[in-house]
Amino acid sequence: MSGAGSLAASFVLGAAHPHLFFQGGDVPALRSAAQTTHREIASHLTQILAQHFDDPAPTTTDYDDPRFFGQDVCAWAFGYQLTGDARYAAQAQLRLKTYLTWSDWGFGEIASLGEPDLNIGHFLIGVSCAYDLLYTVLPDADRSAIGARLAAEADRMYLGWNDAWYVDQYPQNHNWINAAGMGLAGLALQGEDSRAGNWLARAQDDLGKVKLVLGAIPDGSWHEGILYQEYGISMSLPFWMALRAGGSDYTDMGILRGLGRMFLAAQIPDVPRQQILLHGDFTGWPQGGMIAMLRFAAARFQDGFAETAAQRWLAAGPRSHLLPDMFFEVFEFLGYDPTIAAADPHALPLDTYLPDLQAAVLHSSWDPGDLALAFKAAPYGGRANFDRMKAGREPGGHLNWGHDHNDDMSFWLWGNGTWLAPEAAGYDAGSNTGYAVSKRANMTVFHNGLLIDGNGELGDTRGSDDERANSWFFNRDAQPLLTPTGTADYAVAGGRGASLYGSSLGLSRWDRMVVLARKRYALVHDDVVASSSHTYEWICHFLDGANVDAASGWVQGLGRNGMSLGVRVVSPPSWTATTGTQSENLTFLFEPDNSISYVRIRPSAASAAAQFLTALLPVQTSAWSSRMRIDPLSATDTGAGTVIAPGSDLEERWIFGTQGVDAKAAGDLALTASLAGMVGRNAGAPIRALLIGPGILMDQDGSRLLLASQSARSIEADLQGGKLAVTGDGIADFQAFAPGVTSVTRIAWRRASRSPRAVTERPSRVSSIRAPPPRARAPSRMAGSPTGATPLPSRREMRWGTSRPRHRSHGWSTPRPRRCHSRRVRPRAPGTRPRRSASPRANRARRSPASSMRAKRRRARARRRTPRSSTAATSSRQRRRTRQEMFPRRRRSRGRSIRRHRTPPSSRDRRR
Fold this sequence. Notes:
Layout: H1 27-35, H2 39-50, H3 67-83, H4 86-100, H5 109-113, H6 118-134, H7 140-160, H8 173-188, H9 196-215, H10 226-245, H11 254-257, H12 259-266, E1 267-268, E2 271-275, H13 288-301, H14 304-315, H15 326-335, E3 351-354, E4 359-362, E5 372-376, H16 383-391, E6 410-415, E7 418-421, E8 450-452, E9 479-486, E10 490-496, E11 507-517, E12 521-534, E13 536-542, E14 546-549, E15 554-558, E16 563-571, E17 575-582, E18 596-603, E19 607-620, E20 630-632, E21 641-644, E22 651-656, E23 663-666, E24 669-672, E25 676-682, E26 685-692, E27 695-699, E28 704-709, E29 714-720, E30 723-729, E31 733-737, E32 743-748, E33 758-761, H17 763-769, E34 798-802, E35 822-825, H18 840-846, H19 849-864, H20 876-886, E36 898-901, H21 907-911
Parallel strand pairs: 30-32
Antiparallel strand pairs: 1-2, 3-4, 4-5, 5-6, 6-7, 8-13, 9-10, 10-11, 11-12, 12-19, 13-18, 14-15, 15-16, 16-19, 17-18, 20-21, 21-22, 22-25, 23-24, 24-27, 25-26, 26-29, 27-28, 28-31, 29-30, 31-34, 32-33, 35-36
Helix pairs in contact: 2-3, 2-15, 3-4, 3-6, 3-15, 6-7, 6-8, 7-8, 7-9, 8-9, 8-10, 10-13, 12-14, 13-14, 13-15
């Protein structure tokens, strides 16, 4: 067996022992790998085991968790195969013989739950592995007795399977682990016990259904939390690996394929053993089980990013010294492929979207010093399985969501080496009515969410985690407002959470957008609308206390490393606050002092609609008095935008739009169609502009165009001396105000699996792509546009850029996309005279009858369109005029022939 590949070699069911993970002939190669490619894993494993060579026989009180006994004995048995040292085998034998004297491997579980569960599941996994690995050195009497007890416990699991509560809960670690224990016993005793085939068949049938559940998760995430993901999969992995070694591979699952990138994105570069995604029940940070999973995924899918995540975790501190944790190092060793090199994370986008969790992780850097922001908005159970259960698709069963928290629409912020905006992390499995209210860790108040009249999201108080027992379950469904998109200096994500609350509240909108200004600050914008007045409370958490100064509009959240988080409440303009601390089940595993602080911001008066706009600014505690100034963009509409560092070298003026509303005006800015825009200024002169979503950003009360695009999900145009640096996502065209620019650099910012690529264009090339539009008037109903507004800059002051294909059709970001047609000028040969174009009548005559009929049908369909809502900021005619002014068609040039290209809407248009 070569050390270059995974050490899980092929085997034949029922063959001589060992055969679960490798055969006897593979042992020399295994020991060779332990001295070379796998030395780091093997040396730690054997070093920890060697410290216990003289341990006495175990007692039932050695561990506070009986599950550890199964893990313990597996590690000892593998230590013998790894070294050939009889002392490892002796300790394993001592444990196995002692376990035979214990009457109940379930430690009372059967009496309390009715059927075998995790305690027996762990014993089955560990004893099955030890039986296979020690088979040749066990005395005949011991081998027979151990095999008989293993068979009895496996058959007990088999006979109780149909009545077990977890049997049809396929997204459930109890199901996976217990089936794995039963199946692994079947593999270990194949050909030795006539019942082994039944156990194996039942376990494989269950695993086939589990694969349907886990295979549908595309992003490697898990809705219950990362540690629960580690526990369920790492304990099931031995059975999956043994099946794969025998030719039955179930491991091609989306949750494993995406594991490496998910965990790498969730890791905090300063402390890679912590993750910025704190969703679900918290029982500590992932450890050795996750490393075993990452090493297996790296080998199984040739995934260098999984190896990178594993190496970052390993480099952050020592391995575990606990003997039961050596179980995970056994399977790390067996799954590790040293030929899989760690991939460079800098080749990945800084912004990651996890579609099943509907979570965004926005980084400033892949390196220490990162300011990172995470955001989650999803239904209970994760998107894939929520939709599967709602539609009644295979394999049926029940959706396990007992470990989910009401953390949807919540955010988490890390920066400057500390948690800036964590949550009150804790544990509360299943129903929470048995806990005191102050200990119900899954409630909204323990997260960075929103309270309405003092109440949180649906499920805050639940007596059952069965979806059938909660009539509201399938109506509680958050949706993305904006999946992550970013530029060189900014990243944005957002969600829609109105349906997370009871229908009696009449909530029609809760849109939350989060913005990361990389390495500098974050913004959180909430737009809430209901049919009647309510008291809304905006929640944020801190590590060590909160000081409120409502007069200045600031909250100081105290952190560590000499850092504070300044929360500037830009909107509402008048507010009050409540502060306090929280500590629920297992909070001490996140925060050693077992206390997390919070602030709750509420408008001074109840209302049907409210906007919260907060700036989250990391500040050195010693420099709190000289912190950056942050103001509202508009004194009359404080939720519309904010001004960051007014009067500085980079004054950033933000404006936020509303989905479904075409135009927004505030301060001196006007935004059309886009969800957000920003203009950066130095001494009053624009030096940077940003758009989130296709649209137009203008200043000077809507009279000067700064940035426009019909295609970009995000675009930033940054003036850097004589160069215009353009970054963003999905940019096929743009128009920017860029006086004095001599070159344009376009960077493919969201280029997956490779580093961003810059393309520099000389001004002659830039201007040849498409001529800039003529001077345009401001959009018709922009508030504050004076009569005779300042005209747009001249053509010399404008630069227009586009990426191939040049003549692609783009829909406009309005509630109903429209087709736009582009025309191309046919170039003439140098030195020839321009040819006069044909008359309009001649052009019409050249059209085919079919073409004319198609045009008539298009016009008829346009007339039959349902009128737009009267609540839109501008009428259809005004929008059409604005669009024609900003992106005019070329006029027929005298002496040039025009070829018209009619192209269907792009795939992006069809998705809107």
